[in-house]
Amino acid sequence: MRLFRQTESVRTQRAEIELRHDGETYRVQLKRVDTARRFVLRVRGATRDAVLTMPRRASLKDAAEFAERNAAWVSVRLRRLPQQVSFVDGAVFPLQGAAIRIVHAPGERGVVWRAYERETQAGATPKLYVAGDLPHVERRVGDWLKAQARKEIGAAVAHYAALLSRPTPSISLRDTTTRWGSCSAAGSLNFSWRLIMAPPEVLRYLAAHEVCHLEHMNHSPRFWKLCRSICAETDVAEVWLKAHGADLHRYGAKKAGGSPPTAISF
Ligand SMILES: [Zn+2]
Hints:
Layout: E1 2-8, E2 13-21, E3 24-33, E4 40-44, E5 49-55, H1 60-69, H2 71-79, E6 92-95, E7 98-104, E8 112-114, E9 127-130, H3 137-163, E10 171-174, E11 181-183, E12 189-192, H4 200-212, H5 221-230, H6 234-244, E13 264-265
Parallel strand pairs: 3-5, 7-9, 10-12
Antiparallel strand pairs: 1-2, 2-3, 4-5, 6-7, 8-9, 11-12, 11-13
Helix pairs in contact: 3-4, 4-5, 4-6
Zinc ion binds next to β13.
């Protein structure tokens, strides 16, 4: 075990521990919390790592020892998580709520394209063809999904903004793990590109949710009333996200770190 990174910011002090157990290496994020009275370790499915919450004044050495004593527990919990799925030839992942299979088509023209429905036999998993060299399949699928997400989220945001007689806000895509969307104080909206894997009504709901934050920068009863009035799928989508949202983080490569979120969150 070794401490390999420690950065400090005004509000929080962060460090990461690398924990070795049974030939495997696990990441443990250290999080100092003013109100913490003891060490608390938990495993996160979305980022496939562990978080150790520690009192403000506890030493890094004690934190590292605590993590080490609990290495077996971390290992068991992380190994019990469902398998990660990379965007490689043959992999199946959800696209707009329905399973699709990646098929490498090196000799074909184009970059990434969906099979026409008539090409898909009844009951068979639809195909997503990816041209080019095999090592580039994962990146191409990721890029294609982000482009699809931008198109679909952009259209939904424009739709709901028009319902509220507002100009279409600018949107950006991220790979956040703690929230699906956010609205900055300046009125720009951020979304997780992974929403393109969720059923279309869930993506639409998130667009409606963030657009409603342009009117109410909170989750007050007035906010929810407005959200439900422009998006009838609000409650169904909330239930879906609670039940299945974390699963969307299983697919594709995940970049470590990520920018800290700002302003109101989902
Ligand atoms: Zn919100």
